[in-house]
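S.,

As promised, the zinc ion run. Input:
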Amino acid sequence: MKAAQLVGLDSAEMVWYDSAPALLAQGYRQAATRQAPVLIHRDLHQPVTQLQQAAAEAGFALGIASGYRDFSRQLSIMQQKSLGERALLDRFGICVPLQTLTPTEFLAVYLMWSALPGASRHHWGCDIDVFDWGALAPAARLQLTQAEVEGIFAPFYTWLECYLQRDADWRRPYARALGSQAPDWLNAASGVRLSSQIAAGIGPEPWHLSYAPLAFRYECETHAEALCALWDNPDLPLQAQVRPLISYLYRDYVAAYYIG
Ligand SMILES: [Zn+2]
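Predicted complex:
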């Protein structure tokens, strides 16, 4: 994969994947109309089809909430959160008022639930977020929250966990719980005022699947230097905070979640 693809600046090798026909064949007419095609890596087409078939055999209508997400999309999420246009949540899922945070504290809160632009696995095209259309009420909006994981989607994610024990090609890099400590770089950079609200690492995302045969390769090809080069750009939000912390951010939010 080219350097630009590894950080989400190039969508070569991505193809549209439309699972609506399969959902329709399963009898999920409404889900078929609501499931939009998603961009995924071209080598993911067959594995995703097989995964959906396995789910169907178990009685689930596997939906794909997102696939490929490029750098500009990741950047716009960070910009919206830094401007207060999207909610910023602490480790307990409670909204944090922006005005209470220093820029470095914002970064630490932000990174628990969103990726640093260029550091999300979604731009490799081999990672997808999945859920069960069959459990979502016709008018309900998908949120992918812990409440849904433990509530309406609990049977689906329980099945998925069992299925993944038989199919080692699919992994869940973000399934583990947050740690209990604030990140060490936050303490060094700006004190510990909000340390009880901020944990090191990424919040649990049991819906996030990574296709290991592709992901192993891209993990090996991605290095902290690529992020350094990407963030050497004063137009990016919080550039002054991110640049000196890149090696810590790469360690805690990228390499710590490698599955290879
Ligand atoms: Zn995801």
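The radius of gyration is 18 Å. The CA atoms of residues 30 and 139 lie 10 Å apart.

- D.
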